[in-house]
Design a protein that fits this description.
Blueprint: H1 26-41, E1 46-48, E2 58-63, E3 75-97, E4 105-120, E5 126-132, H2 134-146, E6 161-163, H3 164-167
Antiparallel strand pairs: 1-2, 2-3, 3-4, 4-5, 4-6
This protein binds nickel (II) ion (NI).
Nickel (II) ion binds near residues 99, 100, 141 and 145.
């Protein structure tokens, strides 16, 4: 288990569609452990396998109760393999996102407020949840990584994209 280097925007793997997981085996558990170590070391709220250089449809995310984000409801630690999203309704929320692959930058991104996600945990057990708010946002952000999309591509107006230190005070902070 190890903290792995995180690929940065511009790396071809971050623009690629990741491969589906076909076996729930020790290799998958080792991948998840490395993602876990890397996410925690960098204080991320989520990470996708391509970010540590592995083309596999695996994301993890978690938001613990954190005084930095009093406006956000905690999200349980989740390993999500081969996710399928169904956006529910037409309502969207705008939120300031960051990403471990786009360090130091923030952008205002519209996301579907509610969605259903299905997939599997690291042991192949099915997951089926309907969520909203930040939980829905983090799932959309992480699953975008599996389709080769980074959050700056979702920013509607590049006037709302910039360096975190310069934007401080102008935005409601979201975890990476
Ligand atoms: Ni990201």
């Amino acid at each position: 288990m190890a903290v792995r280097p995180v690929l940065k925007m511009g790396e071809p793997l971050l623009r690629a569609v990741a491969a589906p997981v076909t076996q729930f085996d020790a290799q998958l558990l080792a991948l998840v452990a490395d993602m876990d170590d890397t996410m925690r070391a960098l204080n991320g709220a989520g990470i996708a396998a391509p970010q540590i250089g592995v083309s596999a449809r695996v994301v993890i995310f978690e938001l613990q109760d954190n005084p930095r984000y009093p406006h956000l409801t905690p999200v349980p630690y989740t390993v999500l393999v081969n996710p399928v999203l169904t956006l529910l309704g037409t309502e969207q929320d705008e939120g300031w996102e960051g990403c471990l692959s786009v360090p130091g930058m923030r952008g205002l991104v519209p996301r579907s407020r509610r969605l259903r996600y299905r997939g599997f945990d690291a042991h192949g057990e099915p997951l089926d949840r309907t969520v909203e708010g930040f939980h829905a946002r983090v799932v959309q952000h992480e699953v975008d990584h599996l389709d080769g999309i980074l959050f700056p591509q979702r920013v509607r107006d590049l006037a709302n994209f910039g360096f975190e230190e310069a934007l401080a005070g102008q935005m409601t902070l979201m975890p990476d």
